[in-house]
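Minutes, project check-in
Item: structure for the 152-residue chain
Input as provided by the requester:
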Amino acid sequence: MALDTLISEYPQITIKIADMPKGLSGLYFDNVILLNKHLASNEKHCVLAEEIGHYETTYGNITDLSDVRNVKLEKVARRWGYEKILSLDLLIDCHNNGFWTIEEVCFHLDITPEYLNDAVAYYIQKYGVYKIHNGYKITFDPLTVIKNYELE
């Protein structure tokens, strides 16, 4: 799933590429998402997933990160983004299409290696070191997919 595909899934949101303050990658407010124009395409894709996660899961102004509730809402949006653009089904798709290395997976999914690492850390926290999903065993460390796997 590339940046343009993700954008096309949300026609109700206005997405603008903008010159943003240093250190700010993206911002969601009132059905508008701003993405920093200085980001590479794969970085924009990762940021967009999180900002759409805010659209899907959070509410109100959560910019004050000294408030623990806002930090939790940031995490919810980020995790939503992981599951959207780096879902277990997409990991299986990468395997089935011969994309096995970190570089190949990142290129195929248009994400950064840092995003992949963060998503894998989230999946380890959620599932443990592996997950059986639709007949595949997905091991998160190291990231591997085994087809036709049944529970032992």
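Outcome recorded: Residues 68-85 form the longest helix (18 residues).
No further action items on this chain.
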